[in-house]
Amino acid sequence: MFYVYILYSKAIDAYYIGSTSMIIEERLRRHLSSHNGFTGRAKDWEVVYFESYENKKDAILREQEIKKWKSRVKIIELISA
């Protein structure tokens, strides 16, 4: 399985959109570990949304679609649905 997920950090009031073949909890653990990059800026990330896909291509296409929105309102609407 492949996943598209959205993380939220209250500390920096930001969303992060990603995709992975890992179990979501493991991927979150890696985001919370010490590393460089956007998610390294906060330590309170939580999974607020995810979708499952049977293949990598579909997951990546969906991730790119959500990222292209560049709209916090649309992301909040998706999470709230």
Structure commentary:
It is a single chain. The chain is an alpha+beta fold. It is built from three helices and three strands, in the order ββαβαα. Strands 2-1-3 form a three-stranded antiparallel β-sheet, with helices on both faces. A hairpin with a 4-residue loop joins strand 1 and strand 2. The longest helix has 14 residues. The two termini are 22 Å apart.
Task: Summarize the SSE layout with pairings.
Blueprint: E1 2-9, E2 14-20, H1 24-32, E3 46-53, H2 56-69, H3 72-80
In short:
This protein has 81 residues and is of the alpha+beta class. It has helices at residues 24-32, 56-69, 72-80; strands at 2-9, 14-20, 46-53.
Average the pLDDT over all residues and give the rounded result: 95
Radius of gyration of CA atoms, rounded to a whole number: 12 Å
End-to-end Cα distance: 22 Å
Biggest sheet features: 3 strands, antiparallel
Number of helices: 3
Structural class: alpha+beta
- Strand segment tally: 3
Order of helices and strands: EEHEHH
Q: Report the uncertain regions.
A: none
Strand order of the largest sheet: 2-1-3
Percentage beta strand:
25-35%
Helix content: 25-40%
Shape: globular
